[in-house]
Amino acid sequence: MTPRIGFYHLQKTSLEQALPKLLEKVLQSGQRAVVMAGSVERIAFLDQLLWTSEPESWIPHGTARDGEASLQPIYLTAEDENPNNAKILLLTDGVVSTHLTDFERCLTLFDGNDEAAVQASRVLWKEWKGLGFDLTYYQQTDRGGWQEKARANAPDGAVVGGAAGAD
């Protein structure tokens, strides 16, 4: 399958603030997700974050340390894998998957205050556009929501920019 890939340009909040909100939306849609990060230590950090990010809510998730990967609705990993048969992949810390076509959607989140991360995302956009993936670029609004700013290789072949999105 050819995934729809969203580039999420973090400008107003950190990954630690945005990730739980995005994962809540994944769960609300009834989907499963894999979150891929740059190291085992980063996975341990994100694991702890998802237990404590919102005192009144809980984001069900697991890691290799927990076992039973196939039972986890959200699976955190530093490996390029899909052990919970997820349809959604979230990439953090500049990691890239070689298994994009195993997913329906991919969200790549990058820090807009890190020039190297911005440049790496531009390189990925060009590469993935050349491979024919359906790409959408989202920029954070002042309220922390997301606004669609550009699209490439849309199903009708259009390349557009400046489309409004919801907060």
TrEMBL record:
- SUPFAM superfamilies, alphabetically? DNA polymerase III chi subunit
For molecular function, the Gene Ontology terms on record are: DNA binding; DNA-directed DNA polymerase activity
> Which GO biological process entries does UniProt record here?
DNA replication; positive regulation of DNA-templated DNA replication initiation
Enumerate the transmembrane spans: none
- Entries under NCBIfam families matching the protein: PRK05728.1-4
Identify the PANTHER family for this entry: DNA POLYMERASE III SUBUNIT CHI
Report the protein name in the record: DNA polymerase III subunit chi
